[in-house]
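note to self: the first set is below, dont mix up w the second
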Amino acid sequence: MPIGTLVNAAAVAVGSITGYFLKKKYPDNIRGIVFQAIGIVTIIIGLKMSLEVKNLLTLIFSLLLGGIAGEILKLEAGINRLISGVQKKFRGEASHQFSEGMVTAFLIFCMGSMTIIGALDEGLKGDHTILFTKSILDGFTSVALASTYGIGVLFSIVPLVVYQGGITILAVMAKDFFTPYIIAQLTATGGAIIIGLGINLLKIREIRVLNLLPSLLIIILFSLFIK
């Protein structure tokens, strides 16, 4: 059972309903301090995950090569263009506010590194920590979104459950392939990326974390041949 995803969906549902009734009264200072607190927690989680590393050298090379691959492929820029394109398409619909709210919320909640790393962590290790942290972040974000876009944000939980929960289920099905060593190395690499996300949330420096996602594939390849 993708428990983390179900909790995530519940948090979005509560946040969406709250935001719908609050309308645009969601204080920016409250939203800001919540994001700062979650940023600190995210860095702590990332550090904890990174300490599981078994081979530091392959972790370093995975991040370097993965980052270079992400920059060449321009993953972050491509995802941002996708989000903008989908939003523009739905602005032209008759029920544009509902549609745009649902699509915007789904893209914000599911097009980030926390979704993939958290779902993998839940599927491979049964650890819900990242997805629970993401649930808090998404819950407060959904308040702000629903106060602007309306009830459409609530319905983003349907594609969220399918997409994020699907990754968890696929990870469970592939669990036999992932040895304890590969899981440790994958967790450590994911932790390093999560630290970058925490730095972004705290606005210390802008790190293109989505461009680092190929590192997760590279660390698996390294772990198959290098111990």
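second set (the one i keep forgetting abt)
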Amino acid sequence: MNNFLDFMEKRFVPVAARIGGQRHLVAIRDGFVAIMPLILAGSTAVLLKNTIFQWIAPLGILIPICDQVWWGTLAIMTLLVVFSTAYSLAKSYNVNSLAAGLIAVGSYFATLPQAHGDAGWGYIHWGYLQATGLFTGLIVALIATEIFVKLIKRDLTIKMPEEVPPAVGRAFAAVIPGMITIFTFGIVFLIIDKLGGVSLYDVIYEGIQKPLQGFSQGVGSAMVMAMLINLFWFFGLHGANILDPIMNALYLPALTDNAAAIEAGLAAPNVITRVFFDTYVHLGGSGATIGLIIAIFIAAKKRKEYREVAKLSTPSGIFQINEPMMFGLPIVLNPILFIPFIITPGILTLIGYIGTATGFAPPTYVAIPWTTPPVVGAFLATGATSASWRAAVLASINLVISVLIYLPFIKLADRQSRKTKITNQ
């Protein structure tokens, strides 16, 4: 085990640290974080429309409000992410971030067809703006911002006199870089159109995004992603933040697809969504550490320091915050806890997948705050319907299993503590 840890510290940790600090991944992560209030507002609207406003007839008059909230949030998610990601990336370069965000939005529109189906000119289908467009939107946001930043840094700008207000000066400085950036994507649209394609979105969706989403729905790939998050965490790196851009790009569209299908009265097409992991896997935080806390209360007799940390960590653990356990126990670089901490999310992902795929629990389709307590989150993420109790049961089963996985290792740690005390005497 020591040789393994030495190898990982030498080879894995430096690479992982570089990934975690990579400018573009950080920009994507921050871009999604910035629109979280809108995602939660849209998901709450979907939840209210399909539960309380359906159950209580007089409240049905409020359903149009939910429709409009959804229309202003989840239905235009890609547009929001394009702006926020470009803004964050430009800010990291210390370049006019507001202009970069606006130019990225304009660039994305420049790649879209100006008509859809039999509709006349000037009609953009909302499908290009919802979560299915995230992959294309992120690519455009990153490339557009890089072009804009490079042109700015090469001083290809219009300089205004010093007496001009700063806001006006920054706007004029962005004119030439902005024009070149948007024209670039207009040229991309023309090339794709002349080659017989529809748009950049369709090329990327059919050639890259769709195959990746199909791969992401495999239980094996989901298990790997869940365990990889914990592998980063074990070495003190925030695994959830590092992999958040990938998780959002792959699994947020699956969530919105489920919501749209259920809204239309159809069966949800996806088993694994972005919320699936918070619902069934990250119980108490990465590694299902609420199960570790319970295991400590059950089995740690001699390790008083474990019990004290567990007591202090319980309130935050209930709300899915596990940094006190990560760094206080610690779990980070703890060889005894390495095995359960890595395998637990993989096993819970498998059980959650089986429980959902077999129809025991309804699919997740509501974006809930990641701080929602375990079991309660499962009930809400599946729509708080008459069948959602089964999702709560499935989450409870996973919680019990996480405790059972951690128990023998806590007993081992307790036994080692006892032996150490005897040796010291």
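remember for set 2: The chain has two domains: 73-216, 223-424.
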